[in-house]
Amino acid sequence: MATLYYEKDADPSLIAGRKVAIIGYGSQGHAHARNLSESGVDVRVGLREGSSSAAKAAEAGLRVVSVDQAAEEADLIMLLLPDTEQASVYEASIAPHLQAGDAIFFAHGFNIRFGLITPPDGVDVAMVAPKGPGHLVRRTYTEGGGVPSLIAVAADPSGRAHDLALSYAHAIGATRAGVLDTTFEEETETDLFGEQVVLCGGLTALVQAGFETLVGAGYQPESAYFECLHELKLIVDLMYEQGIAGMRFSISDTAEYGDLTRGPRVINQAVRDEMSRILAEIRDGRFAEEWVAENRNGRPNYTRLREEGLAHPIEKVGAELRAMMPFIGAGKERIQDVSGG
Ligand code: NAD
Ligand code: MG
Q: Does 108 qualify as catalytic in the annotation?
């Protein structure tokens, strides 16, 4: 089993002895800044001129300065901008202020793993990556809990980068839930693979294809929606709580026999081979290169594919059916409130 770190394993004095800059005040930024501040850490928030988040951060009692000033004042800089924006902001406003003895932190390994940001020698480079959205990092902290997090070190000239990352993780509440060592490579590659193949890409394509197959065979779109999308939550909740075995225990024998005999025909060898090719594109940098170029070109494919997704018939029938089940969206407002992003 991997080593997990909890509260007793962290040294809170390490982060307490640093001047921390949180760059960005979105999903993760607001949560890290507020949790660190309430844990007694010296925090300033670095935002660009005219940022709409400045008022929210100030309202939360945080000191807001420019990105340049935050990077200059601080000796630990956490970059919580969108991954595609980080490299240009780093070059313009952070790199000029980095000195030996400073630390630069990330919440995802993308920019370091793919060489888009290369911090200078003498600077600790580490990651504290909560395994949950920022509003949960904030909410669980206020409730006395935390979100499990990964930590990693890419450069350790001080010899204390790992303990500093653990101390930071502690101050945002993560050691209450469990902190796990990883590497920038493992975190970045598994994160991209998971979202492309299973969690987002694989799942949405599976749901749409199942829906299209039923509707194409003449069944009502409403039935297809309930079967292929709505019921997913019940199944996923069971898997989340009890694993695949526990989910199978709860479904009927007929459903389970269909699962065991038909599942491997859907996710067959051709699909597995495609999964391996997708992983290879992640590891050799082709995906990162494509995504960086897509952003540089103004996101034409992204925009077109997103619009095609919005126009899919499952969205229309789903919107109609969900409007009749207002209880489904009941938690949503609260999430927007808390995230502030
Ligand atoms: P976000 O989009 O919610 O927030 C980004 C913030 O940066 C916003 O305040 C935005 O106004 C600001 N910003 C954007 N461009 C800027 C620029 N050019 N200059 C200055 N400020 C700018 O981002 P996020 O989801 O919090 O992601 C931040 C980091 O956390 C990323 O590395 C991401 O991979 C990582 N992460 C996110 C989550 C998540 O659930 N959202 C989970 C774990 C890790
Ligand atoms: Mg992820």
A: yes
